[in-house]
Design brief:
The chain has twelve helices and nine strands. It is an alpha+beta fold. The strands form two sheets. It has a seven-stranded mixed β-sheet with strand order 1-2-3-4-5-8-6.
Length: 304
């Protein structure tokens, strides 16, 4: 009797993991020995992405997403691919122009598969709901040989110009999410410009946050993006009606792939709450505060 209870507990634990849950749904092959080891013990002796994809398999998916072709057209053919996947919570995929040194980095993705629980009740989801998600902890695309220009200045947190390959990178993550399969891809953008770039495919999980973001994008549309994002990062975003500061609060932005998550983000209820928040907010930039912040830093301001 005791053995039967223990076996039941182990089975429930086994089915709680993202890859193993997905395997029972008829849309993915049974997990390999490496995937089982990765999920159950956190061990990854083969240094495989998610305990499943080796270097050549990752390279083929990079090619399928258009990333390798895009790099070749930007004079970076045949980039060096490095996987660092020993830690399940920090699955790293990097591409380098030639040698594997940080100053030649083209792409770096730090990812994690996890069971995500909403922080509060949202639509059909409760705090106990479980969504199988691909988490983007970090995604960097940089051109090591191209400088910033007056026409394309640096964005907050950006050390080198981008490569213009974010759509292809998102396609790669979406492809992986479908293949595993998962409910979606999740990112928490720390800057306004990041959320704006992702917004072509992603939506904030909470409809009020999506409406708030869209209102900010609407009201700052005429301001150069580098300037708007920098002003927001300096705490210069304000309510247009009251002049009160409006902080940028990072929140979950998701690309839904399937199931209840996708259904909710496309639902009339989500749109209703989003539109209500969108209509209720008007924002602006406190330019005096922005100039003061620039003066404090002794930096060249982007504001004319």
């Amino acid at each position: 009797m005791e053995r039967k209870r223990q076996r039941g507990f182990d089975l429930r634990r086994l089915l709680a993991f993202p890859l193993l849950q997905a395997a029972g749904e008829g849309t993915s092959a049974s997990p390999s020995e490496g995937e089982l080891l990765f999920e159950l013990t956190g061990e990854n002796p083969g240094n495989l992405l998610f305990g499943r994809f080796d270097t050549e398999e990752v390279r083929s998916r990079l090619a399928r997403a258009g990333i390798l072709d895009g790099l070749s057209r930007r004079r970076y053919p045949d980039p060096f691919l490095l996987l660092e996947c020993k830690d399940p919570a920090d699955q790293r995929v990097s591409l380098f122009a030639g040698s594997a040194s940080r100053d030649r980095l083209l792409l770096e993705a730090r990812l994690q598969l996890c069971r995500f629980h909403p922080r509060r009740a949202i639509g059909p989801f409760t705090e106990e709901s479980t969504l199988r998600m691909l988490i983007i902890h970090w995604l960097s695309l940089s051109d090591p040989d191209r400088p910033f220009t007056a026409e394309r200045p640096s964005l907050p947190g950006q050390h080198r110009p981008g490569l213009g390959l974010l759509p292809q990178s998102i396609a790669l993550l979406q492809d992986l999410g479908r293949e595993l399969p998962l409910d979606g891809v999740l990112d928490v953008p720390d800057h306004f410009h990041t959320a704006l770039f992702y917004s072509r495919n992603f939506r904030f999980l909470e409809p009020e946050n999506e409406g708030r973001f869209q209102a900010i994008a609407r009201d700052l549309k005429g301001i150069p993006l580098a300037l708007a994002s920098e002003a927001i990062s300096f705490g210069c975003l304000i309510h247009a009606d009251t002049d009160e500061p409006l902080p940028w609060d990072p929140a979950e932005q998701v690309l839904p792939i399937r199931g209840p998550l996708r259904s909710y983000l496309l639902s009339p209820e989500y749109r209703r709450l989003r539109d209500r928040a969108f209509s209720a907010l008007r924002v602006g930039i406190d330019w005096d505060r922005y100039r003061g912040k620039i003066a404090e830093r002794g930096a060249a301001r982007k504001y004319p």
